[in-house]
Amino acid sequence: MTPDIIEWGQRLGELNALSALSLGLFFAAIGLVVFPRTPFIIAAGATFGLAAAPVILIGGLAGSMLAFVLSRYVASSRFHGWLDRHPRLQAVARAVDLEGWKNIALLRLGVPIPNAATNYMLGLTRIGFATYVLATLIFSIPQIVLFCFLGASGRASLLEGAGFGSSLLSIALAAALIALISWRVRSVFRNSLPPAP
Hints:
This protein is 81% helix and 0% strand.
């Protein structure tokens, strides 16, 4: 079975125009669906390597922008009703209203809220669209690159028997870095949330 997996893995990895477009559209769509995108980023990294990161970033940004616009301008009352049922997200929205892009940075770096939920919630805040887009673009990069690297390293460890030890070390370091960033961001965010009115 392992030779079959290795052979299948060796056939993957060519990021051409069609696969890049498909990947970008997929991550744009994921920006609209409240579901964790992390497994998909790792899978894209395993499939295409780090070359997938810019495509995921652009596709994800497009989906985030669309979700923000839908939440703010198209179905605002519906999304306000959704936010009213989630007190934790209400507190996060108030924190964004108070500190703006800084809290968007924290949300993009490592708070365990699905990306689409974050996009919709941020559309209900007073943050400006340009600030939202710029903060989302810049602060999504570390997480996307780390998860793509994690996927690419996992694939390399399966395909290259000799480099297994170094690939395993790379995976462990990337996973530790992701966990550390996520823990630190959650801690800072928890302490920065304003009290409920």
